[in-house]
Amino acid sequence: MKRTWTRITIAVALVLVVAFPFLTNAYILGIAQAMLLYFIYAMAMNLLMGYTGIRSFGQAGFWGVGAYVTGLMMNMHQYGILSLLGAMIIGAVLGLAVGMLSLRLQSVYFFITTLGVSEMLRVIAINWMPVTRGPMGLMVQPTSMGLFLGRFEYQTQVYLLSVLLAVLCFLGLRTLMRSHTGKILMSIRDSEPLADSVGVNPTAYKVFAFATAGAITALSGGLNAMAYRIVVPDFLSMQYTTIGLLMVLIGGSGELWGPLFGALIYVGFNEGLRSIGEFRLVIFALIMILVVMLFPKGLIGTLKQQTNKIKQRKQQT
Amino acid sequence: MLEIRNLSKSFQGLQVFSGIDLTVEDRPGEKSPLIGVIGPNGAGKTTLFNIFTGYAKADGGSVIFDGKELLGKKPHEIVRAGLTRTFQSTLAFRQLTVKENVLVAAYLHEDFSFLERFIYPLVSLKLTQKKTRDAQERAEKVLSMVGMLDDMDMVSGNLPYGKQKKLGIAMGLATEPKLLALDEPAAGLNPHETAETMELLQEINRGGTAVLVIEHNMKLIMTACERIYVLSGGRIIAEGLPQEIAKNERVIEVYLGKGMTAHA
Ligand SMILES: Nc1ncnc2c1ncn2[C@@H]1O[C@H](COP(=O)(O)OP(=O)(O)O)[C@@H](O)[C@H]1O
Ligand SMILES: [Mg+2]
After folding, report:
1. Across the A/B interface, how many CB contacts are shorter than 8 Å?
2. Which of A168, A222, A237, A266 could pair with A70 in a Cys bridge, judged by C-beta atoms 3.0 to 4.6 Å apart?
């Protein structure tokens, strides 16, 4: 009974989400678009931090690289969807390379490597003028996504594509976390030496998680380039890593639905505070710290805890 | 089966032990060995386990298991070779259920291919159904053997300490080792749980698994083990049958003398 209702709710919500572009204006649609692509980013971060116990402090590197690859590919050959695939492949390859180099090391070296790589990429983006146009930023030419999307306006195309990709990522990660590989990832999160002692090769699984998260993060960055049609070196900065980490903490680390709520709240706050101007980030950071302190398990984690308590109380009486 | 020869180890120049020899024999067709290692706190028992299970480097010596050198191998490679260890204090994957804990260990012998490990799980659970069902059956068999079927769906971090320790043994069993090495399986348990653990170890051993156990509880080790090594002052100071060890003067002096007589 409860499951039926959950399914109906999800189906109705999904219909509304798909119908949204036809019910609203470009500004609001832009916000919904941000929520979708940050949702995808938060799912990648949750796979790393929430499920595998990897704290990546250079995730913005993947996000920015995804944005550049998508932007460049769209400009070069006007590949719509293929440019996202390109971003994902580059993100996965970068994740494999960085992961194989640094995940076998102690976490402090991993921290330095991930941070170092993302900073290096940022410096490249600033200085490689002929390709990235440096600090001025890369303008992205809109192009049709093809498929069944061709008939809609560009913004709507990107939005609907984002919905599709967000749903696919969600279903893929849900399946992963229910599988044997998902359980092995969580065992590594809980104790790496213990996982090792029952025959798990922790490095192999961590590299897998890092590469998968790299691909998904790059996809999110690519959608950002597609939707807002500009890519700047700042996308590779620590700020975007922090956003990813915060979304996971807010929604609930290691919770399937956590990233969705993390993204909704982050983008919502970000827009709500826009009128405050430059102080926005400071205020945002303060609010987030407060939220994380008050709800250490995140929104979904805390909700679960509360409903469990109520259930137990009911059973007792 | 396991031959440790002339093993030595020091931390930052401080010698923990040297010249350690220890053997667990292969006895095909006969009862599997059940061997104990005792010694005062800080003698280096855990360090010894850490070395032959890939968690620490030796300064010198060799560890041969089934004819292959173990030194230099990683822990998960050693488990694959048939030698599994448990930990003194890291017991279980805290946020996973009891069954999931044992499952992770039971996956070892399913030999998932690259696709089954890293691609299919993103697509559909059906693609690996046969192997994961196999693992589930084995996990449930192990849980029923240790009497934890009823706790199957509990989050392991919420279990009482005694059950967490038992779960640690169950996970070791689920890897189906030839030799199971246990680091103080009864430490911190009450007398009832200790007796249960002792019976469990003997049952595992009767099932054909060789057992090497570090233990502080003299009663447990004296009644359960067929042969005992005593590690103290960086050396094996005695080796033999429980009765011999109990009578050995040096053992009484360095080990039993230090307030352990009450347990013996
Ligand atoms: N990682 C380490 N670094 C430095 N010293 C250690 C380390 N691990 C153990 N030791 C030291 O080695 C000695 C043996 O410890 P351990 O093997 O845990 O003893 P036991 O298990 O017999 O109680 C102790 O003196 C301990 O302080
Ligand atoms: Mg010890």
Report:
1. 104
2. A222
Q: Is the CB of B163 under 6 A from ligand 1?
A: no
| pLDDT tens string A57-85 | 899 999 999 999 999 999 987 678 899 99
Q: CATH number, domain at A37?
A: 1.10.3470
Contact between A221 and B160 (Cβ < 8 Å): no
Asked whether the ipTM of the predicted complex exceeds the cut of 0.90, the reply is yes
Full-model pTM: 0.92
Q: Does B217 have pLDDT greater than 80?
A: no
Domain boundaries, chain B: 2-82+177-256, 95-161
The class level of CATH for B2-82+177-256 reads alpha beta
Using DSSP, state whether B23 is helix, strand or coil: strand
Domain of residue A37 covers 24-316
Closest ligand (CA of B183): 2
The residues that bridge with B20 in the sheet, in sequence order, are B7
Instruction: Please check whether residue A38 lies inside any domain of the structure.
Output: yes
For the residues A248-261, what does the mean pLDDT come to?
92
Do B87 and A196 meet the contact criterion of CB atoms below 8 Å apart? no
Q: What's the domain count of chain A? A: 1
- Residue A6 within a domain: no
Give the pairing type, strands B34-38 and B210-214: parallel
Which atom from ligand 1 is nearest to the alpha carbon of B45? 22
Residues B133-155 have pLDDT tens digits of 999 999 999 999 999 999 999 99
Bridge partners, residue B10, by sequence? B15
Whether A69 is in a domain gets the answer: yes
Q: Which residue, judged by its Cα, is nearest atom 26 of ligand 1?
A: B42
Q: Give the residue carrying structure tokens 């998260």.
A: A213
pLDDT in tens, A117-138: 999 999 998 889 888 888 888 9
Rounded Cα distance between B92 and B96, Å, is 8
State the pLDDT at residue A317.
57
Residue A10 falls within a domain, yes or no?
A: no
Q: Give me ligand 1 centre to Cα A190, in Å.
A: 24
Question: DSSP class of residue B84?
Answer: E
- What's the pLDDT score for residue B261? 44
Residues of B within 8 A of A215 (CB-CB) are: none
Ligand 2 geometric centre to CA of A200 (Å): 23
